[in-house]
Amino acid sequence: MQIKNLRIYRLDPSWALDAAQLSQLLEQHHFHPGTSQEPLSIGWIEPRAGHGLAYQNDSQILLCMRSERKLLPSTVINQVARTKAIELEAEQGYKPGRKQMQEIKEQVITELLPRAFAVQRDTQVWIDPVNRWLCVDTASGAVGDEVMGLLAKTINPFPVLPLYTELSPGAAMTSWLLEDEAPSNLSIDQDTELRSTTENRALVKYVRHSAEPEELGRHIQSGKQCTRLALTWDDRISFVLTDGLELKRITLLDVIKEQETSISGNDDEIFNSEMALITRELSRLLADLLDALGGEKRVA
Fold it and tell me: For the whole prediction, is pTM greater than 0.90?
């Protein structure tokens, strides 16, 4: 089992679904490949073949959304549309107007979609009912929105709440950089991004390079705030925290990798052991991160 990114949400306290009940709900939106005229098709698939649409190991649950998108580059659409526009101009004696060009492009898309390549992408959803986490493994905001939209269609009432912290991630990370020290169990790594809060949105990046506190201080005094910061948790997991409270580039370090390599058994036993190990560590990381950001903010 691998998790590379986390978009973090709170699970509603009323959550009471087990894997069997959840699978029945997911079945209503089981993935089916799109028709020749569907540019996008999304639905749920089995996270592990033959084990149902909701895979449960102890209290932890995995879901998987599959999206199928037809690749139809705008350059191709525009090229074919220009050719058709020239032909239409020859027929009617004048150039097509804006409305006609829009109709031509729509016609081109309809004609080309059946021949477009279909690319499939699978996105994991990890549910921790014990600690009330629901996390989506994606670095893309658009994909995250697709998952949330499909969940909203699948489960009623919608079981997901936004997560708010007492300290905004951007302000907290900026403070850690100024103090050159992160809270307990977290250490600052080399990748840093600072962005201006003014209209020019000036951006400074440090990649595999540790900036001096004085240099960082000058950037922050000029109106920049930390928007991304590479961190390591407890010498066990490294990741990049964003000002939107997202975890990216999650990497398991040697302490956990050694535990993974010691796991034995058949495929199901190995997967379950890895899932238990990784979700346990991530749950602990999220709890410590929440504390580092001042705890959860209660919203009326």
Answer: no
How many angstroms separate the CA atoms of 189 and 98, rounded?
52
Read off the amino acid at residue 197: T
In the structure encoding, which two tokens stand for residue 38, read together?
Answer: 């569907």
Dist CA 207 CA 189 (whole Å): 10
pLDDT at 243: 94
The pLDDT of residue 1 is 79
Give the type of residue at 186: L
User: Which residues of the chain are modeled with pLDDT < 50?
Assistant: none
Give the pLDDT of residue 300: 63
Angle at CA 270, nearest 5°, toward 150 and 128? 40
Query: Contact at 8 Å (CB) between 241 and 228?
Result: yes
- Tell me if 15 sits within 8 A of 151, measured CB to CB: no
Concatenate the DSSP letters of all residues of 94-141 into one string: S---HHHHHHHHHHHHHHHGGGSEEEEEEEEEEEETTTTEEEE--S-H
Q: State residue 22's pLDDT score.
A: 95
Q: What is the dihedral sign for C-alpha 33, 37, 40, 41?
A: negative
Q: Round to whole Å and give the CA distance between 7 and 148.
A: 11
Angle at 46 between CA 45 and CA 49, to 5 degrees: 130
| Rounded Cα distance, 62 and 56, in Å | 6
DSSP for 248-299, written as a single string:
EEEEE-HHHHHHHHT--SSHHHHHHHHHHHHHHHHHHHHHHHHHHTTSBPP-
pLDDT of residue 37: 74
- The length of the chain, given as a count of residues: 300
